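Reopening: structure tokens for the FE3-S4 cluster complex, inputs below.
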Amino acid sequence: MEKEFIEGRQGEVLVMESTTQNSKKLFLESYGCQMNFSDSEIVASILNEEGYNTTAQLEEADLILLNTCSIREKAEQTVRKRLSQFNTLKKQKPNLTIGVLGCMAERLKTKFLEEEHLVDLVVGPDAYRDLPNLLKDTDDGRNAINVLLSKEETYADISPIRLGGNGVTAFVSITRGCDNMCTFCVVPFTRGRERSRDPHSVLKECSELVANGYKEITLLGQNVDSYLWYGGGPKKDFNKATELQKATAVNFAHLLDLVATAHPDTRLRFSTSNPQDMNEDVLYVMAKHDNICKYIHLPVQSGSTTVLERMNRQHTREEYMELLDKIREIVPDCAISHDMITGFCGETEEEHRDTLSLMEYAQYDFGYMFAYSERPGTPAHKKMEDDVPADIKKRRLSEVIAMQQKLSLQRMNSYVGKTHKVLIEGTSKKSQDYWYGRISQNAVVVFPKTENTNIGDFVLVGVIDCTSATLIGEKQ
Ligand code: SAH
Ligand code: F3S
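Re-run output (same inputs, fresh job):
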């Protein structure tokens, strides 16, 4: 629910479903956003060709890779702490290679090799195809680094190896990078320019997933609504495209329609939507297809127009409210969630209260909430002062969290007494005798196992009770 939700996934060890004849062992741990988890599946695929199988046993690894996150200072500290735990292991096993991937690799570059002597290998998010070459260098005892960002790379032709999953839900990435330059955010610097993936390769990956028994697909990108395929290349060069390329371009609403039509029995989700790029066309496609889940993650960051301006978000409080109204009108049963930052540069009490009142207006189902963490090199770091004291950031964060808990409970209560279609995703963490799944609106449901029900089944569940985070039901 709160900030722990995203950080709760940190440090997840990724192990592949089936092992092949490979002899070398890779220990791959992913931190941060869903995109990193999806990228790790690409890395596992590239290294599988090089003779590596993943392992959950740190001690037997020949290669340790951490796919890292830079979004907040705490995320970076977690990775540093994890690295320090490999000290003894490296002493016992001098041939062990330790590498960092992802956003911290991109942000710190050679500094990583200087500051963390344990690290042999530094690879940015657009350079994973170079891993086999880089590993030749580390095998010869040299450090290796590639942090080149690309304007085209989408890894479209690489079939990800599904790691650590339930065999039922999967991510398919459709865009990489971000051009939005929100002043607080490090992502445009670590993941480079925004580019979209060929729709044919998206459709092909979805078909393979469906053929392999997957029941739910989440289309993934920093900013999915900004998806635009016109033959490849950065989004910002679209104006240089030929007339034919412009006329045949595929936008997000179109892509969503294509995937939903091709797989009517598969659930579809997407994340993340940026309010400035979300439009009516996408909402009409959502309303048209039963298999597109009625849920939008719509980060807003603040409810105050003046803060939004300082953040370089391209919309006002009122425009965001209009978008909320439109969602409620076109997709009436839609759940909406948010990301919120408290204590951004110069935030006053009045601006903070604007955030609380926007939350009430939106009636959010849930949210991910954070205290502002200044990131080196971002526009906010260069041009603004991180002047809200830590204790005030924290107090405002707890007020925002308390507000969300109240709203979540209200929203969850509105699902009680009704029957919902649920995809069974696994056994409940709290009880072996209960299944765990989600309704279309993304709320988690637990209900007692009955005979002849299995992971991957769609079942009708009557919801009889709830907490602010979980629905409790029974199979109909
Ligand atoms: N569009 C992206 C957003 C990535 S960052 C997506 O796919 O989710 C995820 C969230 O982290 C942001 O929406 C924002 O709320 C939060 N965040 C980003 N930079 C931050 C910072 N410097 N301090 C605190 N929170 C931050
Ligand atoms: Fe970051 Fe804003 Fe893009 S939050 S990922 S710069 S939309």
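Residues 1-8 have pLDDT under 50 and may be disordered. Residues 390-415 form the longest helix (26 residues). Marking as resolved unless the reporter disagrees.
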